[in-house]
């Protein structure tokens, strides 16, 4: 491999892979079973906490966090193959305390939080004792343009009053989810990108109301879920603001870079697993007297899937490496590129696998349909493809015209 | 329009459209509400029977059935625009007693059934009093090659014993579903395509066991559902066989032609509605200071969607017209073509609409995600794309080599 | 077939097909040979005039022209299959005096020309004695927006002075080409779409200078060619204006509708021939021990090609039929749609055939590479895809919002 | 950048870029002019030898050759960015003596040639005094399966007799081209991949007859050209065999790896230039009142082009790096992948640029149409996409089934 991983990363890759094989994959069905047998869809299967304890003990914990005091202290490049491995199973990221949106929230607190905020929220998050959600997008406005946001964070004496309706607050269905980072307009008269703030809102604060859990292509994604939440005159102390008034976009910029690339890394893992499943299937399944693998277009699917995965992986690694060496700002074109590439790649690889599995592919018998639905949301979450493409083109067109070329 | 519809069809189109606008669309949310409030997911919302009564009264009933004694007496071409209109709403086909798999089953009974079978099953089906399912595909074998089928129908005295495991028996979750048409091997020593039979199995016969309802991308499709059913030494009288032993494939051929094209017609309606929804959205939703309709790639999406829908519709109409004038057998290439085209077209149109709706698109707030999941199954149901493409190519390659061409 | 052709059209289809087989296909290589052996690339191979004489005698002449006094008197729908057949060979359209740009020019003269203009130019064109070109697009401006046009047609006493630089004046390389229809700005102060006129300019008028012949992917398209022409203070009598000052866009609208659809019909013929060639090839060519037809993805290519051709054909026929029954104006969305569909369809079908032919496919041994290059120009000529897509979307978005839909 | 280039490579990149800007780009039009004014299409424009002299002097010579005694001594990874830069101009590779097929031929001689062969052919090739061609594919058989080859190399006393018809012997039109490496069957009774040999045939040997120059789309690619050559009982001394009898496939394997990746590197340069041209154009060209860059789908094209180029580049670099570190054999999947990716990527990027240029795009006014035609041949040359995809799938399917996955 041409990207050089540190010895530490290589060692962790190996450990993680073993852990997946010994502990995570065999428990996927246990998890589903326990979820099904729970009192309702919103209780946590016991197996998840058992696996978390094991992972922590094995040192496979908080690997996402670059800062070495709290977390894994790995570079983005070193973390990439680990995050990819976790992405192979939808229950894995939580096992290693590396699941969205907690990872993004922890990074925000680690970077911009006060000591008090760290003590109150970051610590239990890092320990895997509580979970958190992120309330940014709103149902009434196009969130592709974040300046559309209508929620408000209004100072009132020692407090802020938070008002607004947010949706896609993923993870809020989890009974362990205790806090939301809410973004809203605090300074309506400031320049466009200094009008918004982020604030910590405990989910048990009066006025916080989970209206409903949003399904994704029929999946409730229990026990985490995607909540639509009304913040109705919710009062929180002024100390709950993160970094300061008007810093919302600045934090969002910082938060979204790593968040986006983590999604991409996991999508590569998911696509890799889908390809593996497809290969297994077509070698075994027989139609018209020979294995599917020997028929028609199946080998094209395998080849194209490998090609697409490999290219997406390389672009992700490049973006990760640039974030490490040149910073998230310089890497913004690469981050935008991979944010377009990874979900579309995963969707096409998974879709081929679904097709190879026939009816089983769209059902719950294989993880494919769920993986597809999840990947589909990532063409929208953290900015739709269109917005990222536009950002790439803008950067391209800001290059000086080269004189050596005709035209 | 260049395809000429009869006056009767034109008149029905108008009536149907009004009925949809006055009765069906406004009741879509009522249906969902009643389903949600039912004792479980598997009770029938009252509104559906109310609408059925109205539709019957309005003469919008059984329009799918070509034979005029029982049904609409319309040609496939005349039925096409009606079926398309019904396809705009997932609850509509049942309202007009034109829903799969009942339509296919009724056609089978009408064409191949004995008088006794017609009296017992066809009559209540035509009256909308009961529903039915179709047990063909099996989880253990590749159903793209139907000769793989392992279920058996074994004569034993005055009875047949039915054994096997079938899945995707759609509609079996419906409490009104009373009978299955089951396909299985009855004559293992006959030539390859004369080994199988179809037989009527009452769902309350001893040995019939619904193992589970299969989800489609997270949707349970309640209250109809897709059942996996075990037929465990189920005994039925010999009179339950349809047409005769060994006629399974012959019936399947006849059944699948119209069934496939009906799916395609409905998919065009679904795509048309998705495009309409997308157009509504992009005119109203504002980002970066102007409606989405005035930005980037949105107009390409609308144009491409219109182009794809229109081409799929024309091909469907051509296939329908050929079935009417030259017969289903001659039309088999066209049927295979449209079976490939329509689901893929619908998926791409609906996917663009989802993208235009952002987070709402993947949720339950709009019918798009559900429509997408349903359309996705139709790249598999009634034969995967690959099998149809192969059939088309085979027919193409059986043309004589033309001497006028070099090469 | 669901589109009903008149008996006359059916009879002509049969005659035309025989003529192609007996006369045109066998002479394709003769034509190439004679062109190669000519004194230069710009002399007309004798075989073309021989074939023209035969076609005229056989009544296969001027079939494109709807008006029955001068031409075939066929509807667009009736002409469509004839034009498609001609499109199978690049030398065929001229043989039947149905080649662009003469057809469009003749239609303009027939509809808008004075008796004098008809006598002088239309008559010899209809007789196939002279040829003509059309000078519209200009190298210096984006011609996708025709109002960019900079050429001028300035009244001066009894004359107009024509000034400007035009390119893609196809056919101007032909020694028989005697006249150009030139479009330019005559009334700069009029409303935007009434500023331009069309005027007849004899190619031997002083000041007309063919600067060069433009290659298309290396092809000179001799002996017709695509000329870049300078009109340098060219004086023509006032009687040479067509219809009247300021009528340029009105004429262009009328001219382009049929012209566009004729291109599409021919492209379908070209694609059909490419598919035929591909089928011939893959049945005969052996690799890895079996014919290409039995390998990998080849059958998918054939099936997809058939599907794409058939859909494009149906859309063309629908557009033709609408032009006949509702008029070119009402049919403008359908014309725009087919103008996008046909070239892209042809390019993909031909490209697959090229791939199946290997090195031969890109060479002159088969007509494929030339067909591809020609089809590629038609994603640009008469408006680039983008402009047509935009027109379609605009028409779609001008529909009233339907109240029956949520969103 | 995450791939680490040596200081030497970085230094050469800079020098090469300056040389391109100062010497190559400005001489592109001079080259065309001199070619046009030559006595025929097959004389070498003087400017090319002038540039070669300069390049040699500047140390920008034979950079492709890994071995440091003769050539640049660069790794594949270090050479990649240099080769990409050369790929930006179709006349550049020859300027630096890095043009196909000489590079492949020189590598063959360097690796497998005798001292005598090196003295006679390799030396003048390395000095840029002569050129060479490669006679492998044949018109009569599918060359995608090289074992189809029908040419023979038959021992006869001290000589071999070479018989066969080869085509796509690129470069044979060049008056400086003195020798062909010919592949043919020498040992018909040996195992399948040991039946063929490669042999050096001087082009002036009796019996060597250039039948014609094959056009690519309409391009003759003069003064190099693609020759169809008959080898009619050509006698060469036994010492002309390369490596030994039966080594043909072994050499081909070695030859094709680097040759393929060099093509890919150059294609990336070509695509990069096409994107640059497109960006220049859309910033300047105005339609409907604003630059093309601000309209419709143009920014999507730019973003997608950037994404596709970047992914292809990374995959090329990975393949290059694997060749350097693990060897060409281990890298065969990556080489196959990039061989599929690079031409298709280049075609799509260049095609978008053509579309943005309108009529100019398909003409000779910009290098785009020529670049496209050349890139199109590379979906066929050195193995068609289909064969490479099949090879990738075969490698994928030879992986052991992973037990951790269901399915």
UniProtKB/TrEMBL annotation, chains A, B, C, D:
Residues 7-129 form the Acyl-CoA dehydrogenase/oxidase N-terminal domain. One of its GO terms (molecular function) is flavin adenine dinucleotide binding. Its cofactor is FAD. Residues 246-394 form the Acyl-CoA dehydrogenase/oxidase C-terminal domain. The keyword Metal-binding does not apply. PANTHER family: ACYL-COA DEHYDROGENASE FAMILY MEMBER 11, MEDIUM-CHAIN SPECIFIC ACYL-COA DEHYDROGENASE, MITOCHONDRIAL-RELATED. This is Acyl-CoA dehydrogenase.
């Amino acid at each position: 491999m041409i990207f050089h991983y540190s010895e530490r990363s290589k060692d962790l890759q190996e450990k993680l892979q073993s852990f997946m094989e010994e502990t995570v994959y065999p428990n996927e069905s246990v998890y589903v079973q326990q979820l099904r047998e729970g009192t309702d869809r919103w209780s946590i299967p016991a197996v998840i906490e058992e696996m978390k304890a094991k992972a922590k003990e094995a040192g496979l914990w908080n690997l996402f966090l670059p800062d070495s005091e709290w977390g894994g202290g790995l570079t983005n490049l070193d973390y990439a193959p680990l995050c990819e491995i976790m992405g192979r199973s939808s229950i894995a990221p939580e096992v290693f305390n590396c699941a969205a949106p907690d990872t993004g929230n922890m990074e925000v607190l680690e970077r911009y939080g006060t000591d008090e905020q760290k003590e109150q929220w970051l610590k239990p998050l890092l320990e895997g004792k509580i979970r958190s959600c992120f309330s940014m997008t709103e149902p009434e406005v196009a969130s592709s343009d974040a300046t559309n946001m209508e929620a408000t964070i209004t100072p009132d004496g020692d407090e802020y009053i938070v008002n607004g309706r947010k949706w896609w607050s993923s993870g809020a269905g989890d009974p362990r989810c205790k806090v939301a980072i809410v973004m809203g307009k605090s300074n309506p008269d400031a320049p466009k990108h200094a009008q918004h703030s982020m604030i910590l809102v405990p989910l048990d604060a009066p006025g916080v109301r989970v209206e409903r859990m949003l399904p994704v292509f029929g999946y409730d994604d229990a026990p985490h879920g995607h909540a639509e939440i009304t913040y109705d005159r919710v009062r929180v102390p002024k100390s709950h603001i993160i970094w300061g008034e008007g810093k919302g976009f600045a934090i969002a910029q910082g938060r979204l870079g790593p968040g986006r690339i983590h999604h991409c890394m996991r999508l590569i893992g998911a696509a890799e697993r889908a390809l593996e499943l497809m290969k297994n299937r077509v070698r075994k399944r027989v139609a018209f007297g020979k294995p599917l693998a020997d028929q028609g277009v199946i080998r094209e699917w395998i080849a194209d899937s490998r090609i697409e995965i490999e290219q997406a992986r390389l672009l992700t690694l490049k973006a990760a490496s640039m974030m490490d060496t040149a910073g998230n700002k310089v890497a913004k074109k690469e981050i935008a590129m991979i944010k377009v590439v990874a979900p579309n790649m995963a969707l096409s690889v998974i879709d081929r696998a679904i097709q190879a599995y026939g009816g089983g592919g769209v059902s719950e018998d294989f993880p494919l349909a769920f993986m597809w639905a999840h990947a589909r949301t990532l063409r929208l979450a953290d900015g739709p493809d269109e917005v990222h493409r536009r950002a790439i083109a803008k950067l391209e067109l800001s290059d000086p015209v080269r004189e050596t070329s005709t035209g």
